Amino acid sequence: MAAKPVAPVPGRRPGTGRLVVLVSGSGTNLQALLDTIAEAGADAYGAEVVAVGADREGIEGLARAERAGVPTFVCRVRDHATREEWDAALTEAVAAHEPDLVVSAGFMKIVGKEFLARFGGRFVNTHPALLPSFPGAHGVRDALAYGVRVTGCTVHFVDDGVDTGPIIAQGVVEVRDEDHEDGGAALHERIKEVERRLLVDVVGRLARNGYRIEGRKVVIQ
Length: 221
Ligand code: GAR
Description:
With 221 residues, the chain is of the alpha/beta class. It contains 7 helices and 9 strands; from the N terminus they run βααβαβαβαβαββαββ.
């Protein structure tokens, strides 16, 4: 892929987009971003990961960032008197890295008003179900319990609801009969294979091409 001048994401200068990625766990989606950018080069991909943030310490997601030489920060709810103070601290920690896009890649916290006021319209989340079905923290388990035969993943912009923001892209995964035996672990792994490719593709296209959000529709230019 040849490097080309990028059409900016809203409000940003032309050039390589700055990504802050938020994680709470294993960070395989983060790793997919890091690997793709290392392979393609930040100019060709259109963005680079400038920092990784987490709501807890000691997770593999942070270790992945450290191995890649990416700065990290941790902002724990329990270190703050109120949820609002945590939200303000998270907002400042992210803002310090001047991101063009913030990516929630397995970040298991709902952000608050201040975060959305600062990063609304450029905060992307990936969810392991086909929204608007099965929002929340247990998308895989809930889909399986409902008995759906297909599920998948959704990459969307975050708004002030739980997994309700404008959808950018979705990927479909079939449910197998045996998925009920392990409580959805194998299904989640198959979803994550699709999800990693989808997230890498979407973030790159947003950064390279620019986009606009028209109501519930996301138009990548
Ligand atoms: C992903 O499947 C992501 O969709 C999910 O956590 C996983 C993180 O995997 N997020 C949610 O469930 C948010 N509601 P990873 O840490 O290996 O990237």
